[in-house]
Amino acid sequence: MIYTVTLNPAIDKTIILEELKKGEVNRILNSRVDVGGKGINVSKVLCSLNTRSICTGILGKENSDFFLKYLTNLGIDTNFHIISGENRTNIKIVEKTNYILTDINDRGFKMTMKDLDNFLSYFLFFVKEGDIVVISGSLPEGIDSDSYGYIIEKLKEKKAKVVLDADGEPLYYGMKSIPYAIKPNIDELKKVMEIDENDMDSILSGGKRLVDTGIKKVLISLGSKGAIYITEEGSFFSESFKVPVKSTVGAGDAMVAALAYAIKNQLNDIDTLKLATACAASKVMTEGTKKPDRLLINKIVKDVGIRQL
């Protein structure tokens, strides 16, 4: 089973403008509201890949029904731990003229470490050996920055395979607990280790050092420059697939979903990177944080070029 864990879920309101003009009245061309949070976004893409996942984590009680109904309508199974509080709303402004994305993210409800322990006690009861657990996104206010490391240790005791996608200290401490796989983007990676983002050899060396620590799979997103995938078997590069952009929101989450799918289905390294690139490309062609189209993913994956490094 694949589980996706979201500790800081959000309602994502995407607003499309011709161009964002500061200090002026801006007329909305279009808007949409989706349920989000990085783990939730991963489950959406897994749904596009016809792969079942269970979406779990912590939800604030006040507007939890909206989340649960939304995910149920998508055919995604849920098993959230409910606490008091209201889930945050994030505003995502997309400028149609240049497709610049401006994120305005709320901090979300405040949690306590006791809330986290209660969730873990509940969640770990269901986790079995060989399960894949995706941990992604920001930590809510009130939770220690090393909490992902703590969660990873607990999941490894259950012999689960953990895929981590985080930023800053949560990524740093999470990596110290040696998850099975990680998916940082280049900006996230350079915060936690010394690499030159403009030097492919430096990035590759950094990824190999992570594999040497025991992390089995390292997928590094380079944004518009492509992606690098490093495992014990080898290192591979994929150029970014050129597609018309509607929104870059969730492109990284789409890559995480592809990685989890590949682990579950034992894809080889080349096919894993092809799928990750295709999922990301199809996601940027999709408005808001809704799930991408499976047929589009299948079409793109055939044309993705990979070279060994």
Structural class: alpha/beta
End-to-end separation in angstroms reads 32 Å
**Quaternary structure classification:** single chain
Approximate shape = globular
How large a portion of the residues is in β-strands, by DSSP E?
25-35%
- CATH homologous superfamily classification: Ribokinase
Count of individual beta strands: 14
How many separate structural domains? 1
Mean pLDDT: 93
Cα-atom radius of gyration: 18 Å
State the strand order across the main sheet. Answer: 5-4-1-8-9-10-11-12-13-14
Largest sheet: 10 strands, mixed
* Shape-level CATH architecture: 3-Layer(aba) Sandwich
CATH topology-level name? UDP-N-acetylmuramoyl-L-alanine:D-glutamate ligase
Low-confidence stretches: none
Give me the strand/helix succession. Answer: EEEHEHEEEHEHEHEHHEEEHHHE
Q: In CATH's first tier, which class applies? A: Alpha Beta
Q: Helicity, in percent?
A: 25-40%
Number of helices: 10
